[in-house]
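Internal ticket #5521
Category: modeling
Description: The requester needs a full-assembly model to guide mutagenesis choices. All entity lines are attached below as received. Residue total reported by intake: 915.
Assigned to: D.W.
Attached entities:
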Amino acid sequence: MRPALRRFVAMPLVVAIGLGAVAVLQVRVDRAAERARADIEDRLFLPNERLLTHLTAGLHGVVADLLWLECIQYMGKEFHDQEAKFTWLEHLSRTVTRLDPYFAGAYEYGGTLMAAIGNDDGAIELLRQGMIARPDRFELPLEAAKVYVLNRREQPGAAAAASFYLAYAAQLKGGDENLTRWAYNLQMQHGLTQVGREIWRDMAESGPNEMLRDLGRRKLIEMDLHDIVQALNAAADAFEAEHGRRPADLQELADAGYVRGFPEDPLGGAFFVDSTGRVQSTTLLDVQAVERIRRLRVFIAAFRREQGRWPASLEELADMGYVRSPPRHPNERKRFHYDPNTGELSDAPIAR
Amino acid sequence: MPTPVIDIDSLTKVYPRQIGQPARRSLDDLRLRIGENEIFGFLGQNGAGKTTTIKILCSLLRPTKGAASVCGHDVRTRAARSCIGYLPENPYFYEYLTPRETIDFYGRLQGLDKATRAREWDALSERLDLRGIGAQRIRGFSKGMRQRLGFAVALVGDPPVLILDEPMSGLDPLGRRMIRELILSLRAAGKTIFFSSHVLGDVEQICDRVGILVEGRLRTQGRIDELLNRRNEQVELVVSGLSAETADALARDALHARRSEAGLHLTTADAAAANAMARAALSEGGQIVEFTPIRESLEAYFVKEQAS
Amino acid sequence: MTGKILAVAQNTFRESVRDKVLYVLLFFAATAILGSKALGWISIGQDIKIVKDISLSAISVFGVLIAIFVGTNLVYKEVDKRTIYTILSRPLHRFEFILGKYLGLAALLGVVTISMAVVAAAYVLTLGGTVDTTFAIAVALTYVELLLITAFSVLLSTAASPILGALVVFSIYVVGHATNILIDLPPHFDDTFARRVMELVYYILPNLSNLNVRAEAANEVAVAWAYVGWATAYGLFYTAVVLALAALAFEDKDV
């Protein structure tokens, strides 16, 4: 072959034919991949999140792992922090599962952790996505069922939803008798509380790591506290029936012989009678406060997005119609601390 | 001339322009024919285009214009390359191989089977005295050892044509002599040898013919004596033990004369005049200390050629 | 013909095995694989997944680095050290030389990939995990990726200095993993000329994410055989095209 021929005919020919054929093959690869991936991607991805995956030079799995570890460490730190905010948990676990859509553990424990801080909407959303990406893993519907049992027990239909997810989980590989029993109990109209207690005990005894076992133990204690508060309120109701007024404090209740001694809170909280005469647990109110702060932050962020500034006060949030009434701390002896300069909200004074 | 073994037909090579460097014409319309069993010396100063020519013959470079053939095959074909044994200037081989492995490797590139390659090693290691270092890595080899190995590699497959680029450069006198003898023995074995050099001394003792390349053009070619006008060579004569008058008389007849510790230095126009002067000195009771033909160096030739 | 290619390939293998860069990179790869457990222990039961992720990525990343650093030197070094003179003046085609150099490095990368994969698999098994078909598929497709990257390295090695070549091939590696950007465009690109151009570019650029099923392997998700087949065909065909270009580019090169 003459050099000129080679340079001006053969090389362009190889380039044209070669790349043409390469393009045809790419179409086939995409078509073959479509069946597996399109389903997941269309539901999971937003365009900007896809970019992240593409820019990791094929290392998106490892980047997901590292973010996941970051997420766990973040949670571990926040759990021991009085000012726990958990602001980034939802975002982190969402990013992790975008980077590695098959990461079953991230859906599962992301859901668990989000539910534990009271973000049951986020947890359910993440777990639903997980069930689309990993229809083979029983842990994901099980987690979803737990969220209905533990977080949404007051909502109508929670038992039905939980029972549905448990039955689904029980059919998948690895689902054990516990699931079937829980599902059965739910269908037999056993209280959600009872099933919830079983789920937490299961986690406290055989959770996969210390943080989750701790969480299980804590939640069991919270359920005990809940029972104690209910019993104390029943006693207060009996006191009211007899004396025509609510007891002023627990001492009065004890002196009148309605309770034998004062119960203790292993988590270090206390019981008290509030201004309406209802018995409360400071620990349970704190849990509620965390939940309320999380929801308020969403509204504060929406205010900022739409108004271009932070609300001047929590009252303004109500005046502008973002919330129905001015937000109050669930514990009447405490109040929210809000910083209008930064939009930060906390239930302890914000450090300057 | 019968059919030439190497036929170079109006070769031109222009190195294309590169960043910071204009296009450079290295060879310009070179025509050269080398017959069978000839030793051809290809002379020229550094940069004259000798290596370019050799690389074109070995199809390492493509000519800009013109063509060349070896054993009747165009140099771009594999058939031409299988006729050529090539020794580059300062040959380099894989440093981590031993000479034995190196010969085997080139045997495989030549397409030789295993038994033939083993025979090649036996023959070549004997001929080039590589047996003692056959299992050593090339990494620690001296210049002379490398040159011997280079020759052995060039001879793998017993090619009829040998193309040697500066085969004697950088060698000590013993090494040069060895290469000279080797080249002569290869000619005796029927090979055609084309070698380049910038040192006249290497060439004149063994070459049948030389070509002289100046700045990419062939200035002249032919027998070396004719080219350098060897018959009209000046001779320097050194005599001692002469009387002052005799010395003065001889000095007058010489082209040039001077005195030194050794005696009287006389330069004559040619060998005949020198002989006459020597006879005169001897008859006057003097002694001949030295009788040296003043050979024209290649450098002087180039200077002369370029002046003309 | 095959004998001559094999001779060059064997020599290239022997030469590359002696390259110190290889051992430095292998050391880092082994450290990454064996050290991955350290990250795994705080991961709430995800340690096997993380070990697999890091091992498979280490095979890919360090394999690619070897392919780039050794590959972009392959032909260049022969020219630079002038060993090429005595080789190309032999009766062999220049494409045989290119192919031999390529196959020698490809064989070395095969050995490297398999040994790293065996170490990773043994490690996963000792940690109590399982090694399934998808893991093997991920390793195999990673090797196809290395074959393609090596072909690019050889192409660049015939034309450019090792540093420039390494930069170009590394860019090809990064871009090759990001080509999906070109078709994941926001909706306002629909029916525009820019979109058609980018789609065309997408189909032409080497798509290395085709050959990346490492996330699937780490999560033990099955991969369809049809996908494996088409992706392999894609990778090998693209490799052949790049090698053909390398051979053509080298055919008339002055050395």
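Resolution: model delivered.
Comment from assignee: Chain C touches chain A through 58 residues (CB under 8 Å).
Ticket closed.
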